[in-house]
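Hello again, I could really use a second opinion on something today. I've been staring at a protein lately and its backbone has me curious. Can you walk me through what the tokens say about the fold? Take your time with it, there's no hurry, and the full record follows here:
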Amino acid sequence: MAIAYPKRTETKNKNREQLVDAAERLFATKGYQHTTLSDVAEKAGLHDQTLYKHFKNKEELAIASASNAIAHLKEHFDAASDGQSTFDVWRTFITDSLAGLLPMGIGEHKREQLRAASSLMNDNFLLVVYAGYEDVLTEHLAADFQIDPKTNHLPRLVASLLWAGNEIALKRCAGLDTGEDVLDDAAAIVKESLSVVDDIENTYASYIR
């Protein structure tokens, strides 16, 4: 049964959700460092003052939006059928996530970030997101492999490869290694991202029990 909130609380909750969603999209496509709180408020269709009623600074907003991204991954696993492996769910998650982000376009600052060796430095959003992804993926890979992650590092190792593979795919699409920037080609990004998952699965699929 849905909880009936007073109108004022309902509006407050809705505003917070809009801000978190806007921040998640902007941090992912524009880059954490180059996204301002004013950018987020504008994207959410709200005033700056409204944002500051919910978040005192960008770091606090980054943690909330990262938690939102991690929750989306958990939702994909909750909705998965019994026959789907962690690799299957991760593919669906990547495809759905890119479908929501790519229409916004990848900003020039994000391009520069992807081409840099230190692409994750000072990115509080992605650091929290990837740490959360790793935990969720480790849990489900451990179940697939029937391996206890407390005594065997393999589930977390493969989980790390999966989230890092997502970043690697974007780097390649930005021209790193290939010399060709295809970040404006949504189909190319999806293809590269799924290809990385295929490579990892081909290496570790034999461990699935």
